[in-house]
C-alpha cells in the first residue's frame, strides 16, 4: 500500500512549508511522503529557517530541499496551507487543512522557534491522525 502524499503549500515555498517538509521527512516518513511548494519561488530557502533547523534538530534542509512550484511536485492526497497572511495560493483544489501559521521571516529567533515548534507539533499530529486512517 502506498503512503499518502502530503503537500505543504505557501506562496514562496521558502520558510514554513520547507520546515514542514523537513519535519515530515524526518518524523513521519514511515506514514506519509512530504512535499512543499508554492506559486512563486525564492532563490534559496530562508536562511534563518535553515540555521535554526540545523541548530535545534540537526536537519540540513538545503541538502535535499529547494524552493519549487506546485507544478513540480506530485499530485497530493492531502494539501495543507501554512496560513498565508495574504490570499492563499490556488492549487487546483481546496486545502484539506490551514495551519494558520504567521510567517516568522524577519522576526526574532524566539518568534521563529515558536513557529518551528508549532510546525513540528502539527506534523506529529498529522502523522498520528493518518496512522488511524485508511490511506
UniProtKB/TrEMBL annotation:
InterPro entries: Ptyr_pPase, Ptyr_pPase_sf. Pfam families: LMWPc. Residues 4-129 form the Phosphotyrosine protein phosphatase I domain. The keyword Ion transport does not apply. SUPFAM superfamilies: Phosphotyrosine protein phosphatases I. The keyword Cell wall biogenesis/degradation does not apply. Keywords: Arsenical resistance. GO terms for biological process: response to arsenic-containing substance. This is Phosphatase.
Amino acid at each position: 500500500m502506498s503512503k499518502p502524499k502530503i503537500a505543504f503549500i505557501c506562496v514562496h515555498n521558502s520558510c514554513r512549508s520547507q520546515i514542514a517538509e523537513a519535519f515530515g521527512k524526518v518524523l513521519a516518513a514511515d506514514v506519509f511522503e512530504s512535499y512543499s511548494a508554492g506559486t512563486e519561488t525564492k532563490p534559496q530557502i530562508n536562511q534563518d529557517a535553515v540555521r535554526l533547523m540545523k541548530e535545534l534538530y540537526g536537519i540540513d534542509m538545503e541538502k535535499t530541499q529547494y524552493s519549487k512550484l506546485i507544478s513540480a511536485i506530485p499530485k497530493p492526497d492531502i494539501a495543507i496551507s501554512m496560513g498565508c497572511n495574504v490570499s492563499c495560493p490556488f492549487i487546483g483544489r481546496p486545502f484539506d487543512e490551514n495551519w494558520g501559521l504567521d510567517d516568522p521571516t524577519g522576526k526574532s529567533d524566539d518568534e521563529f522557534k515558536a513557529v518551528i515548534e508549532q510546525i513540528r507539533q502539527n506534523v506529529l499530529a498529522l502523522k498520528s491522525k493518518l496512522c488511524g486512517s485508511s490511506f
